[in-house]
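Running this now, will post back.
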Amino acid sequence: MLARMIIISVVSMGGIGAVLALFLVFADKKFKVDEDPRIEAIAGILPGSNCGGCGYPGCRALAEILAKGEAPPNVCVAGGNAVALKLAEVMGVEALDHKRNVAVVLCKGGHAEAERRAIYKGEMTCTASNITGGDKSCAYGCLGYGECVDACKYDAMAMDSNGLPVVFYDKCIGCGACAKACPRSIIEMHTESHKLFVYCRSRDKGAYAKKVCSVACIACGLCVKDCSVSDGIALKNNLAVIDYAVAPQNDESTKRCPTKCILFGIEEQVTRKGFYGSVKKTA
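Update: finished.
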């Protein structure tokens, strides 16, 4: 009797298993989604750095988006023109010029320029320091703990001896990781055609801004007057703001700046080799 029950149970379970297996085979054929073969080809072209500069969570996710035609072939900031051309060929679309972006640190208020209001002894990160306002009197300046440098996967940044992050123009791929890491939004991404920058983010009135930082924008308006294009530079919230759609990219607006906070063409002068070469010479 027991043996019969065991046999019946085994046969029953086997039958149920067979039915479920047939159902799974049917469901697999019915609902199977064929993957676009171009996805693997595109993924093989992408650098695999998963930097997120394209706006997607990784190179594989971007490959799927590109295969659907939902992003242009020049979307990969890490790959540049070389990758854009290969992607265009696989996608069967016209190649587009890759517009290179670079990170710009819009603050020059380091140890030598910025007044300190306290000694910070908490967690040595910009995010933690920002919660208490940091140790500088300027509430808008660089906190100086290098979270942006830590976020850079391409060794395109370093902290200088003045407590400020430096971007290496020849190494930056424009992924934007450093800008996202900065709790004060001091780092901005700009196309390499932008060469004129106001290296200050302070919204404080001129007298106080100058008191706490020797290179602060004091909203004197001289750069506004010296700009040859109307509204190319404007004063907003006690700060000179450049309209890159119309402002000439030259040094005409920098010559009378009393604090030298607006400068032209200095970003491209900073290279990795030059930076570390100068460090060794002064060490």
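Strands lie at 101-105, 157-159, 165-167, 187-191, 196-198, 233-236, 239-242, 262-264. More later if anyone needs it.
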